[in-house]
Amino acid sequence: MPDKQTVGKFLLLIALSGCTRAETGPASAADSDRAPMAQESWDVNLQISDEGVIRLVLEAAHMLRYEDPDSVHTLFEKGDEISDRVTVSFYDSTGSGTGILSADHVLFDEVEHTMIATGDVVLESTEGRMLESERLLWNEDAGTIEAPGFVSLTTEDQNIRGYELEAAENLRTWTIKRPTGTVRIREP
Predict the structure, then answer these.
(1) Is residue 188 part of a domain?
(2) Which of 4, 10, 64, 81 is most exposed, with minimal Cβ within 10 Å?
(3) Dihedrals φ, ψ of 35, to 5°?
Protein backbone atom coordinates (compact mmCIF):
# COMPACT_ATOMS: atom_id res chain seq x y z
CA MET A 1 0.00 0.00 0.00
CA PRO A 2 1.25 3.55 -0.61
CA ASP A 3 2.91 5.66 2.10
CA LYS A 4 1.80 9.09 3.41
CA GLN A 5 3.89 10.94 0.84
CA THR A 6 2.30 8.91 -1.95
CA VAL A 7 -1.22 9.64 -0.70
CA GLY A 8 -0.33 13.33 -0.43
CA LYS A 9 0.91 13.35 -4.02
CA PHE A 10 -2.24 11.47 -5.01
CA LEU A 11 -4.49 14.08 -3.50
CA LEU A 12 -2.41 16.90 -5.01
CA LEU A 13 -2.78 15.24 -8.42
CA ILE A 14 -6.54 15.18 -7.92
CA ALA A 15 -6.53 18.86 -7.11
CA LEU A 16 -4.57 19.62 -10.28
CA SER A 17 -6.59 17.33 -12.56
CA GLY A 18 -9.43 18.45 -14.81
CA CYS A 19 -11.98 19.00 -12.10
CA THR A 20 -14.75 21.53 -11.84
CA ARG A 21 -15.19 23.90 -8.95
CA ALA A 22 -18.59 23.51 -7.34
CA GLU A 23 -20.37 26.47 -5.84
CA THR A 24 -23.39 24.45 -4.75
CA GLY A 25 -24.01 22.17 -1.76
CA PRO A 26 -23.88 18.39 -1.54
CA ALA A 27 -24.73 16.33 -4.62
CA SER A 28 -27.38 14.30 -2.76
CA ALA A 29 -29.10 13.95 0.58
CA ALA A 30 -26.54 11.29 1.52
CA ASP A 31 -23.81 13.92 1.21
CA SER A 32 -25.57 16.45 3.43
CA ASP A 33 -23.53 15.54 6.53
CA ARG A 34 -20.24 16.12 4.69
CA ALA A 35 -18.29 19.31 4.20
CA PRO A 36 -19.15 21.44 1.16
CA MET A 37 -18.15 19.91 -2.17
CA ALA A 38 -15.00 21.53 -3.54
CA GLN A 39 -14.41 19.57 -6.76
CA GLU A 40 -16.15 17.12 -9.07
CA SER A 41 -14.75 15.09 -11.97
CA TRP A 42 -15.84 12.28 -14.31
CA ASP A 43 -13.97 9.35 -15.92
CA VAL A 44 -11.11 9.64 -13.45
CA ASN A 45 -7.85 7.82 -14.21
CA LEU A 46 -5.09 8.80 -11.79
CA GLN A 47 -1.55 7.48 -11.72
CA ILE A 48 0.30 8.30 -8.54
CA SER A 49 4.08 8.05 -8.45
CA ASP A 50 6.77 8.46 -5.84
CA GLU A 51 10.16 9.55 -7.20
CA GLY A 52 9.18 8.41 -10.69
CA VAL A 53 7.83 4.99 -9.67
CA ILE A 54 4.08 4.37 -10.04
CA ARG A 55 2.63 3.46 -6.62
CA LEU A 56 -1.11 3.61 -7.24
CA VAL A 57 -3.51 3.76 -10.21
CA LEU A 58 -7.11 4.66 -9.47
CA GLU A 59 -9.97 4.53 -11.98
CA ALA A 60 -13.52 5.70 -11.29
CA ALA A 61 -16.50 6.98 -13.22
CA HIS A 62 -17.09 9.87 -10.81
CA MET A 63 -15.17 11.77 -8.13
CA LEU A 64 -16.38 14.24 -5.48
CA ARG A 65 -13.97 16.07 -3.18
CA TYR A 66 -15.21 17.64 0.07
CA GLU A 67 -13.13 20.09 2.09
CA ASP A 68 -13.53 21.92 5.38
CA PRO A 69 -10.94 23.28 7.84
CA ASP A 70 -10.67 19.97 9.73
CA SER A 71 -11.02 17.35 7.00
CA VAL A 72 -10.65 16.51 3.35
CA HIS A 73 -12.60 13.57 1.91
CA THR A 74 -12.52 12.37 -1.69
CA LEU A 75 -15.28 10.02 -2.82
CA PHE A 76 -14.82 7.86 -5.92
CA GLU A 77 -17.95 6.22 -7.34
CA LYS A 78 -18.75 3.54 -9.88
CA GLY A 79 -20.59 4.30 -13.09
CA ASP A 80 -23.93 3.11 -14.45
CA GLU A 81 -22.57 -0.03 -16.13
CA ILE A 82 -21.80 -3.18 -14.14
CA SER A 83 -18.20 -3.05 -15.34
CA ASP A 84 -17.78 0.59 -14.23
CA ARG A 85 -16.49 -0.23 -10.74
CA VAL A 86 -13.91 1.79 -8.86
CA THR A 87 -10.53 0.08 -9.12
CA VAL A 88 -7.36 0.82 -7.18
CA SER A 89 -4.15 -0.90 -8.34
CA PHE A 90 -1.32 -0.90 -5.80
CA TYR A 91 2.41 -1.06 -6.59
CA ASP A 92 5.47 -1.47 -4.38
CA SER A 93 8.54 0.79 -4.29
CA THR A 94 10.02 -1.01 -7.33
CA GLY A 95 6.89 -0.48 -9.43
CA SER A 96 5.77 -4.11 -9.23
CA GLY A 97 2.04 -4.70 -8.78
CA THR A 98 0.99 -5.88 -5.31
CA GLY A 99 -2.79 -5.99 -5.58
CA ILE A 100 -6.02 -4.67 -7.01
CA LEU A 101 -9.07 -3.48 -5.12
CA SER A 102 -12.47 -3.09 -6.76
CA ALA A 103 -15.59 -1.64 -5.14
CA ASP A 104 -18.68 0.43 -5.83
CA HIS A 105 -17.37 3.37 -3.75
CA VAL A 106 -14.01 4.38 -2.28
CA LEU A 107 -13.69 7.21 0.24
CA PHE A 108 -10.25 8.63 1.07
CA ASP A 109 -9.75 10.67 4.24
CA GLU A 110 -6.64 12.79 3.73
CA VAL A 111 -6.38 13.89 7.38
CA GLU A 112 -6.82 10.45 8.98
CA HIS A 113 -4.88 8.61 6.21
CA THR A 114 -7.64 6.06 5.77
CA MET A 115 -9.65 4.57 2.93
CA ILE A 116 -13.10 3.00 3.14
CA ALA A 117 -14.25 0.82 0.25
CA THR A 118 -17.90 -0.26 0.11
CA GLY A 119 -20.17 -2.32 -2.12
CA ASP A 120 -19.03 -5.75 -3.34
CA VAL A 121 -15.43 -5.12 -2.28
CA VAL A 122 -12.81 -7.47 -3.71
CA LEU A 123 -9.11 -7.19 -2.81
CA GLU A 124 -6.79 -9.48 -4.79
CA SER A 125 -3.09 -9.71 -4.01
CA THR A 126 -0.55 -10.74 -6.62
CA GLU A 127 0.38 -13.56 -4.21
CA GLY A 128 -2.97 -15.24 -4.86
CA ARG A 129 -4.97 -14.08 -1.84
CA MET A 130 -8.50 -12.78 -2.41
CA LEU A 131 -10.66 -11.01 0.16
CA GLU A 132 -14.36 -10.38 -0.48
CA SER A 133 -16.54 -8.20 1.75
CA GLU A 134 -19.17 -5.47 1.63
CA ARG A 135 -16.92 -3.00 3.45
CA LEU A 136 -13.16 -2.66 3.86
CA LEU A 137 -11.26 -0.10 5.96
CA TRP A 138 -7.58 0.56 5.27
CA ASN A 139 -5.42 2.43 7.78
CA GLU A 140 -2.32 3.68 6.00
CA ASP A 141 -0.44 4.65 9.17
CA ALA A 142 -0.96 1.26 10.83
CA GLY A 143 -0.59 -0.77 7.61
CA THR A 144 -3.76 -2.69 8.43
CA ILE A 145 -7.13 -3.49 6.93
CA GLU A 146 -10.41 -4.35 8.61
CA ALA A 147 -13.55 -5.81 7.13
CA PRO A 148 -16.48 -5.63 9.55
CA GLY A 149 -19.31 -8.00 8.81
CA PHE A 150 -19.15 -11.13 6.67
CA VAL A 151 -15.92 -11.88 4.78
CA SER A 152 -14.53 -14.55 2.50
CA LEU A 153 -10.76 -15.09 2.25
CA THR A 154 -9.41 -17.41 -0.41
CA THR A 155 -5.79 -18.51 -0.82
CA GLU A 156 -4.12 -21.42 -2.60
CA ASP A 157 -4.66 -23.63 0.47
CA GLN A 158 -7.64 -22.03 2.20
CA ASN A 159 -11.21 -20.98 1.68
CA ILE A 160 -12.28 -19.31 4.90
CA ARG A 161 -15.51 -17.44 5.67
CA GLY A 162 -16.35 -15.59 8.84
CA TYR A 163 -16.84 -12.19 10.39
CA GLU A 164 -14.79 -9.14 11.37
CA LEU A 165 -11.48 -9.64 9.59
CA GLU A 166 -8.41 -7.81 10.87
CA ALA A 167 -5.30 -8.19 8.72
CA ALA A 168 -1.99 -6.81 7.58
CA GLU A 169 -2.52 -4.85 4.37
CA ASN A 170 -0.75 -7.57 2.34
CA LEU A 171 -3.16 -10.25 3.73
CA ARG A 172 -0.23 -12.40 4.92
CA THR A 173 -1.44 -12.37 8.55
CA TRP A 174 -5.07 -12.11 9.60
CA THR A 175 -7.73 -13.00 12.13
CA ILE A 176 -11.40 -13.77 11.46
CA LYS A 177 -14.09 -14.27 14.09
CA ARG A 178 -16.40 -17.31 13.83
CA PRO A 179 -14.43 -18.86 10.93
CA THR A 180 -15.67 -21.75 8.82
CA GLY A 181 -14.21 -23.24 5.67
CA THR A 182 -11.58 -25.58 4.35
CA VAL A 183 -7.82 -25.69 4.78
CA ARG A 184 -5.58 -27.96 2.71
CA ILE A 185 -2.75 -29.43 4.78
CA ARG A 186 0.33 -30.33 2.78
CA GLU A 187 2.34 -33.42 3.64
CA PRO A 188 6.01 -32.68 4.48
Answers:
(1) no
(2) 81
(3) -65, 165
Indicate the number of domains in the chain. 1
Tell me if 170 is assigned to some domain.
yes
* DSSP-assigned beta bridge partners for residue 180: 161
Distance CA 183, CA 168 (A): 20
Q: Among 23-32, 52-61, 162-171, name the one with the lowest average pLDDT.
A: 23-32
Q: 50: how many CB neighbours lie within 10 A of its CB?
A: 18
Confidence of residue 118 (pLDDT cuts 50, 70, 90): very high
Going by pLDDT thresholds of 50, 70 and 90, the confidence category of residue 4 is low
Q: What percent of the chain has pLDDT over 90?
A: 40
Cα 95 to chain centroid, rounded:
18
Q: How far is CA 153 from CA 15, 131, 139, 162, 187, in A?
A: 35, 5, 19, 9, 23
Entry field: residues in the chain = 188
Residue 44: which domain range? 4-183
Q: What phi, psi does 29 have (nearest 5°)? A: -60, -30
Instruction: Classify each residue of 4-23 as buried b or exposed e, where b means 16 or more C-beta atoms within 10 Å of its C-beta.
Output: eebbebbbeebeeeebeebe
